[in-house]
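Lab notebook, bench 4. The sequencing result for the construct came back, and we need a structural model before the next group meeting so we can plan mutations. Quick request posted to the team channel:

Model the 3D structure of this chain.
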Amino acid sequence: MHTKLILIVEDDEALRSSLERHLSEKGFRTISASNGREGFKRFQTGKPDLVVLDHGPPRVDGYELLVKIRHFGDTPVIMATTWNSHDDELRCRNLGANDYLPKPIHNEVLAEHVKMLLTRGEDRCANRPIRLRKLTIDPDAYTVFVDDPAGAMELKLTNSELKLLAHMARSPGQVFERADLIYDCFPNSNMLLRTIDSHVCHLNRKLADAGIDVYLEPVRSVGYRLKIRNTNPMDA
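Done. Here's the predicted structure in token form:
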């Protein structure tokens, strides 16, 4: 079953383990890091849905890591700090934190804040237009436009193809299982796993015909991920 992925960056091993265990019991998947540099690598490779970030992990502190995360997008971030002051909270929010929790963190309180932020993010972002390379994907209007020197050109996709593209374009590089794609994009259907393969095949053909350098790459025995051709990964 599909669950959200939470990244915990915390140098206190006992607290980190406690938070991971409790969030797992609440149905979340978790990954973790004990320092800021490792945390940023886990963020880049894991593509978490939310980050719980200690203000002072070693190597790269929480504030610097928050700035790095914000450079890559609007992934929800909860800052956890022992400095329980209005100035500290204001600094966290000014740098882009979505929420702020003073330590010691109560496991149940954290879980409720995680649920609240994820629900709020889904309501706010579900149908917001997505910009990806030369593509502008508008799930609400069911349109995809391609940038062109002569003006934007509409890419004709079926509703199913557009739903798949929009869903995966929100998390480039993340691997999606076929079952999760059905659960997320077609929750009320009786779609078979092989039907996803058919939609992806048609979608990739249309993207290639339009000269788009984005495609859905098969991941053997798992599913698909959205890839961009001819680009070098950013240095960590």
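The mean pLDDT is 85.
Will bring this to the meeting.
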